[in-house]
Design goal:
405 residues; alpha/beta; 6-stranded parallel beta sheet; 14 helices; 12 strands; globular
Length: 405
């Protein structure tokens, strides 16, 4: 009889965390497991059996509770009770959590069930939300209240935004109580940096197993450069590419705009993942493109670029850097959070956060050496360290260890 895996994430086969859950499902199915993915918000076609948690109305009401009362994770009561009944019918052998924020699930009901269910829990941390009273990231604002007790959150109006109340103190206490109530739980940070953060939090006593994110090197591979260059009028241009799911100041958008003031005539910035209103405000030497769900199109962008620039101030991993490597394109990253773990001398350069002059020097260095002098090392590094088959097989090995304990 097949073992059963149930993954829970805000998205299914969409954006980075949804794709990661989907690909773990692929590896599990190949290993003979039955795979389920429960999601809250958006799904694309999946090889796993999909379970929708709640309705659009539930999400809207959860969002309202968050905006008015800072109760993110504490709404969606009926939807979560119904979901728990579904879990009991499935009888999974492993429950694998990903992002349980995103306006779709009640963490009190979920963790009360997990505490009593006697099912091994694996929890992949894609950000820092499980350890804070409000925010998903705190490095950019230099806040370390999460280490002891959150209060007076400096990012109350950032995701998940609360416009009025600040419950960061109560949320932090409740999350600590709930998240430390499960006996058989293994935490999987996606980088060494994030593992160090977990070790400083109230979750420090749980087993920690770092598993890097993986990529599909069959999709993310060197493509022809001419298609994208012709489509966007980039022939004879030195292309500096940035890719993000959402662009904001902490992702480096302001720094790209500052960098654009220094560019030479043959240099251009291309940013993928912008909103229409952001695109309208860009200077002429930045081309803005809205988000794409097509990994093939993303691979073409990476391949057409001369440098992939991930100048984010907060990265728990840095998937765009690695996807760029797989397409033969070197990277420039900021020397902060998890980004420096990904780059070595043969695949790119590391610059101090906010150092525009340093970025210009790094760009010049890569331009003078030429992309081709980095490409082979980039592809080899991506294949050696970040193939999804290798990385996500580590999850199957972890599941089997937990079941054989």
């Amino acid at each position: 009889m097949n073992n059963k895996l149930l993954q829970i994430n805000s998205l299914a086969n969409s954006r980075s965390t949804g794709r990661i859950a989907e690909e773990i499902g692929h590896v599990a199915i190949a290993a003979g497991w039955k795979s389920y993915i429960a999601y809250g918000r958006h799904a694309r076609i999946s090889q796993s059996e999909l379970i929708k948690i709640g309705s659009d109305w539930d999400i809207m009401m959860h969002g309202l509770q968050t905006r008015l009362f800072d109760r993110h994770g504490f709404a969606s009561i009926a939807a979560t009770r119904k979901f728990v009944k579904q879990i009991k019918k499935i009888k999974p052998d492993i429950i694998h959590l990903h992002n349980i924020h995103g306006y779709y699930i009640n963490i009190e009901i979920l963790f009360r069930y997990l505490k009593d269910a006697n099912i091994p829990v694996v929890w992949t941390f894609h950000d820092c939300w499980p350890m804070t009273g409000h925010c998903a990231h705190f490095t950019f604002v230099g806040c370390d209240k999460w280490k002891t007790q959150c209060y007076e959150c400096p990012q109350k109006k950032d995701y998940p935004s609360s416009y009025f109340l600040d419950r960061s103190k109560q949320n932090h206490k409740q999350k600590r109580k709930l998240f430390t109530s499960v006996n058989d739980m293994t935490i999987v940070p996606v980088s060494n940096w994030l593992a160090d953060i977990v070790k400083q939090s109230y979750l420090k006593d749980y087993p920690i197993r770092v598993i890097n994110n993986g990529i599909d090197v069959n999709v993310f591979s060197p493509q022809g450069r001419d298609g994208i260059k012709l489509k966007y009028g980039l022939v004879d241009k030195f292309i500096l590419l940035g890719v993000a799911t959402e662009w904001e100041r902490r992702k480096g958008l302001h720094d790209f705009i500052e960098l654009s003031k220094t560019l030479k005539d043959d240099e251009i910035i291309v940013l993928v993942g912008l909103k229409d209103d952001q695109i309208k405000t860009l200077p002429e030497n930045i081309i803005g493109i809205t988000r794409t769900e097509s990994t093939q199109e993303l691979a073409e962008f990476y391949s057409s670029a001369d440098v992939v620039m991930n100048i984010s101030y907060e990265e728990t991993f840095g998937l765009t850097t690695v996807e760029g490597f797989a397409c033969g394109t070197p990277g420039i990253v900021y020397n902060t959070t998890a980004s420096p773990e990904l780059v070595d001398d043969s695949t790119g350069l590391i610059v101090d956060p906010g150092d525009i002059k340093g970025l210009v020097n790094a760009i010049t260095q890569i331009k003078e050496k030429g992309k081709q002098s980095y490409s082979e090392a980039c592809v080899k590094r991506a294949h050696r360290l970040y193939r999804k088959e290798d990385r996500y097989r580590e999850y199957i090995e972890l599941y089997e260890e937990l079941l054989n304990k």
